[in-house]
Amino acid sequence: MNVNSSTPSFIANYTDRELKQGIQGLSNEEVDQRLTSIVRLFCCLHGRDIYIKAYQGYLSTRLLNKTMIS
Predict the structure, then answer these.
(1) Domain locations along the chain
(2) With a threshold of 0.70, does the pTM exceed it?
(3) What does the alpha-carbon distance between residue 55 and residue 10 come to, in Å, rounded to a whole number?
(4) Which DSSP symbol is given to 25?
(5) Which whole-number Å values give the CA distances from 42 to 11, 19, 27, in the listed order?
(6) Residues of the chain where predicted confidence (pLDDT) is lower than 70
(7) Which pLDDT belongs to residue 47?
(8) Judging by beta carbons within 10 Å of its beta carbon (0-12, 13-18, 19+), is residue 58 exposed, middle or buried?
(9) Cα gap 28→42, rounded to integer Å
């Protein structure tokens, strides 16, 4: 996982998709299981700063789109 330099960005993209679409309609147990899996990936990741920067970009875009729609 840490061999590829694009992995942090891919995991950030996966996290964003899960929070936007993946957990809708799931039970609390299933949501907890998916989020726990993401946290476990993050703990094993060497490029955490890259992940955080990429995820912040996704989050800001999601928040801006939400406020523009409202």
Answers:
(1) 7-69
(2) yes
(3) 10
(4) T
(5) 8, 15, 23
(6) 68-70
(7) 86
(8) middle
(9) 21
